Amino acid sequence: MKKKLIIRTSLIVLLIILGIILFVIGKQHKVLLDNRDLTIDGVTYTAEAAYEIWVDGEKVGRTALNPGRRNVAYVVGPSHEIELREVKNGKPTGDSIVKKFRLSVKQSEVIINIPALAAGSDSFLYEAD
Amino acid sequence: MNERLKGIIENIGLPRLLIASFLLLLFIIAPFVGVRVDTSINDVIARFAMNGILVLSLFPMIKSGCGLNFGLQLGVIAGLLGAVISLEMKVTGFAGFVLAIIISIVFAIIFGYLYGLLLNKVKGEEMVVATYVGFSAVSFMSIMWLLLPFKNPDMIWAYGGEGLRTTISTEGYWHHILNDFLSFQIGSHITIPTGALLFFALLCLIVWAFFRTKAGTAMEAVGSNPDYARSCGIDVDRVRIQSVIFSTIIAALGILVYQQSFGFIQLYNAPLMMAFPAIAAILLGGASVTKVKMWNVLLGALLFQGILTMTPSVINNLIKSDMSETIRIIISNGMIVYALTRRMKVRS
Amino acid sequence: MKNQDSLKTVNPVKQFFINYAVPILFIIMIVFAAPMSGLSPVFLINEVMTRLTRNSFLILSLLIPVLAGMGMNFGIVMGAMAGQIGLILITDWQIVGVPGILLAMLISTPIAIVFGYFTGIVLNKARGREMVTGMMLGYFMNGIYQLLVLYGMGKIIPIRDKSILLSRGYGIRNAISLDGIRQSLDNVIKLDIMGIQIPLVTLAVIALNCLFIIWFRKTKLGQDMRTVGQDMEVARMAGIDVEKTRIISIIISTVLAAYGMIIYLQNIGTINTYNSHEQIGFFAVAALLVGGASVSRASILNVFIGVVLFHTVFIVSPRAGKELIGSAQLGEYFRVFITYGVIAFSLALYAWRNRIEAENERKKAMMLRRASLQNEAEEGGNL
Predict the structure, then answer these.
(1) Domain boundaries along the sequence of chain A
(2) pLDDT band at B124 (very low <50, low <70, confident <90, very high)
(3) Which residues of chain C have pLDDT under 70?
(4) B340 touches chain C (CB under 8 A)
(5) How far apart are CA B152 and CA B165, in angstroms?
(6) Domain B13-341 has CATH 1.10.10
(7) In this predicted complex, what is the ipTM?
(8) CATH code of the domain occupying A28-127
(9) By the CB < 8 Å criterion, does A20 face chain C?
(10) How far apart are the first and last CA of chain B?
């Protein structure tokens, strides 16, 4: 009788854990990609270059993201990779920056600031209001 | 004391008690939330006269042991046929209504006979079979409403369309023909639809009187104890068919009264669910799957229509959102489920 | 007397045609309507394949209550409601893809168990009237579902995603688009054989359900259910808890229906919040009956034959109707008529046969008694 109860309880706990795992790996996040000027903690990052943006190995948008523009990508799960490939006059310069980032389940909508990311700042990602 | 209270509750039935007190509560709250009691009473009476006959139509079949008539739609279809054919013949006024009644009765006899034959073959499973016979009849008639060659421009789609309209106005034909007959006002807001009430009363009287005749008692015997009835030399199957025809005719008349009061003939899917509110009403009035008395019909129709009238107006004013449809679904279907789970005595 | 004779002299061929009247009728309809519809075979097969993956799981959920002698479980609409609640929640939480589908199933499971348990208790009280009671219970629970989804969600149950709420701020919209999980189960592995799309994973899930049912029938509980289905009194004497067994059969059916509804809706890609579940019961039951099942006997094969026949008629009949009479609306009404008609016909046929059998039993018993009385009298005379 007691054994049965233990098995049942652990089964329920297991299912709840499974639910949490599914929640985390299935959570969709909306990522806004801003190639715009941004000031964080007194440091200003200015948008100057155009980039071709790849998120998790997929290109975002058909063309490069010019300064002052915004694009949007939908990603699923907690950990992701973003790659910026600089574009000048419609041609790739060969420069590229790869950055990994993590998203928590609470972050439904986040903004990635491209100039901040390109400058190597760690605070390139913040939550959209 | 406690025992006695329990006995009283048992006698009246818990759901009935709950709903009656709910209705009373609604009437008490009504003035405080800005709902006029007299208009409410007016609506309840109008709807009682409008729907009562449909509730009454269940009576003969419960008496004869055929159970709740989930195939009430067959009678409704007979009534609809009567209505559209009388409109097609462009007979207006009282004559038109009488014509609709006559045609409806003819169809109701035919449908009722066939339906009764079928129900005799499926004894014990009448209700579930009847439900789907009713549903398929409504969907079959949807096809017919499209195809039948009706010509009256008041009934067919105005331009390019085919078949009959989904709602046809009875205006100019026999709109309110019964409601306005001898109707009178009480105060400024209560109008008594005397004609419709009288017609309902007349039908109740006919049914009541019928069950005092020899044929009526035979029908009751078939319902309460078919084996005994058989041994008395009663042709059980024949009597059951009679009861089904009787029920179907009353349902046909019921929908005609409904239409003249409502002002529209509703076709296509409108009759699909019509059996359920009528069944819920008679159960609310105290009937069961096997037992029914005349006061069950009257009380049931009154309580049920009371709830349907009062909940939208009062609840809407109270919480500022329209929950009436949801409450209607819960009460009417809950009542039917409750009745189906009551234990009934075993019949052969 | 007449009944008995007619039943005894019926030859096997005639018996076969009476038993399978509905499937045969459907095959005839397809043979006539398919060429008339002018649809290409590849298109037709693709459509049937879609319906097969969409509906089979739901219809399989009807099998276990039949085993337990409870007839067609019209109460699967409650499972469908549970599935929809799961889908609404994952849509709000923005959980997408296969994890989203699995999470929706996980959420719907306890809800479906509660619904199934409640249904089981009610049906135990309505013995002999399970089908009509199950159907009415479905309608009743639809009211509760509306209360929860139309008034509770966004008020008592927090909903963050404003786009799925009504403009008044609470209550779920009439239609929700399931962009996040649309066909994501179907698309995990999709084969293309000569233009015919085969969603392998969905089919595998359906196969898994079949295996579960086959396995379940062989377990102790499955055997008990069969015994309960055949004769409740015998089962009770054998020490089986009849009430509990019946409740479990309904719980399993309701949970499977919830999963079935999720699979169905991920294929369609939108929920009609207040309508999607309503018709499910009718369509599933009708399809199963078209597959040659009856109230007391239904197999996995019936499910697949049923889906193919029923949906082929659904696909070709509007087109054929349009070619024949020139009205598409007519085809729609025809579909509904066929669905209800099939259920009415099959249930009536079943009840009719049952009655004839019962009457024969009674007459046989009477004749035996008369014969034995006669024997006694003769023996008495000899003495």
Answers:
(1) 28-127
(2) confident
(3) 1-10, 325-328, 378-383
(4) yes
(5) 11
(6) no
(7) 0.86
(8) 2.60.40
(9) no
(10) 39
